[in-house]
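Hi C.,

You asked whether I'd gotten around to modeling the 117-residue construct. I have! Everything is below, sequence then structure, no commentary in between.
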Amino acid sequence: QVQLQESGPGLVKPSQTLSLTCTVSGDSITTSGTFWSWIRQSPGKEPESLGYIHYTGNTFVMPSLRSRTSIGRDTSSNQFTLHLSSVTPNDTAVYYCAKGWGPRSIRGPGTQVTVSS
């Protein structure tokens, strides 16, 4: 059974870059047909899908974040990453990585990221 674990700093200063890593076990991020995605949820708001990396290495990022977001991977470590630049307090949220894209995705436990000076 796949397990995912997010890691990264819990506190980021405004204008800096938020970098998170998702470590996957129980499956490979290069398994044919799989998508590996990032989601966040801010207090009082609905979950927001950020983007994904396909098993081929192709990526998709939601248009609203495309100018400051990149998603990558390290296949040797079976990890994928999220980089979000020029953060503001509005980027404060619990960030989740997931296998899949959409409501049936399997998520990790999430990691709280706070943007504050």
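If it helps when you're writing up: The chain has a mean pLDDT of 96.

Thanks,
B.
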